[in-house]
Design a protein that fits this description.
Number of strands: 0
Shape: globular
Largest sheet: none
Distance between the termini: 43 Å
């Protein structure tokens, strides 16, 4: 968390995602080497991710897919509840 705030910083979220990923990998009974071979993500990328949270979006999606959690990621940027307000912004009636 931020030094003077209760809100999480992006670096905090990265570390939490990396920890959750490591837990999922271990529950699946996969070593980092096995995960790299099966996912197509380099071993170095997996090690860096699990230690620091740093990973490319494409590599993260590959890992989530292999671990059966890709659908969880799709919920992050859900726009269903904002469609109406966006449509109102661009409607001819408001111009």
């Amino acid at each position: 968390m931020g030094k003077y705030s209760i809100a999480k910083l992006p670096s905090d979220v990265l570390k939490e995602i990396a920890l959750k990923h490591r837990i999922l990998r271990k529950k699946a009974g996969l070593s980092q080497v096995e995960l790299a071979e099966r996912s197509g993500v380099s071993l170095g990328s997996i090690k860096r991710f699990e230690n620091s949270g740093q990973i490319s979006l494409e590599s993260l999606l590959k890992l989530l897919h292999l671990l059966g959690h890709l659908a969880d990621f799709e919920l992050i940027l859900n726009t269903n509840n904002t469609n109406n307000s966006i449509e109102k912004l661009f409607s001819n009636k408001t111009r």
